[in-house]
Amino acid sequence: MKRLAWLLLPLTIAGCAEKPADPLFDSPMGQRITCQAVRPVQAKDALSMIPFNCGELQISASLSELRDAGWRLESVDIGNDILVENVLSTEVSITVRKVY
After folding, report:
1. What value does the mean pLDDT take over residues 20-35?
2. How are beta strands 52-54 and 87-98 bridged, if at all?
3. Cβ pair 48, 62 in contact under 8 A
4. For residue range 40-59, what is the model confidence (pLDDT) as tens digits?
5. pLDDT in tens, 50-83
6. CA-to-CA distance for 64 and 79, rounded, in angstroms?
7. DSSP letter string over 37-92?
8. What are phi and psi of 89, to 5 degrees?
9. How far apart are CA 54 and CA 40, in angstroms?
């Protein structure tokens, strides 16, 4: 029985050491990406809570989630005004950089 435990121990440790890849945390420092708001933004929307699609990382995250993962906002690009259900809205994209 002891021999079996010693044989399984390295496999158990190796399995625990592997963690799932998370592109938000695993991206290299200095990487810059552009993300698009998933829907047009309205004046009542808090920018930090809007989900953004980040195609390069193949994820969708809010500015709060990006900030928590070490990304910082570099720029905000506000597009043309559009009417969505009679409410003035605009397409928004952001550029963020990985700082830690």
Report:
1. 93
2. unpaired
3. yes
4. 999 899 999 999 999 999 99
5. 999 999 999 999 999 999 999 999 999 999 999 9
6. 22
7. ESS-EETTS-GGGS-EEETTTTEEE-HHHHHHTTEEEEEEEEEEEEEETTEEEEEE
8. -135, 170
9. 15
- Is 44 strand, coil or helix? coil
Reading the block at residue 49, the tokens are 């809570």
pTM over the 0.85 mark: no
- CA angle, residues 15, 17, 22, in degrees to nearest 5: 105
Amino acid, single-letter form, for residue 97 = R
Burial class (CB in 10 A: 0-12, 13-18, 19+), 62: middle
> Cα angle at 63 between 76 and 39, to 5 degrees?
70
d(CA 33, CA 97): 7
- Burial per residue of 9-35, b for 16 or more beta-carbon CB atoms within 10 angstroms, e otherwise: eeeeeeeeeeeeeeebeebeeeeebeb
- Retrieve residue 9's tokens: 């121990």
Percent of the chain predicted with pLDDT > 90? 73
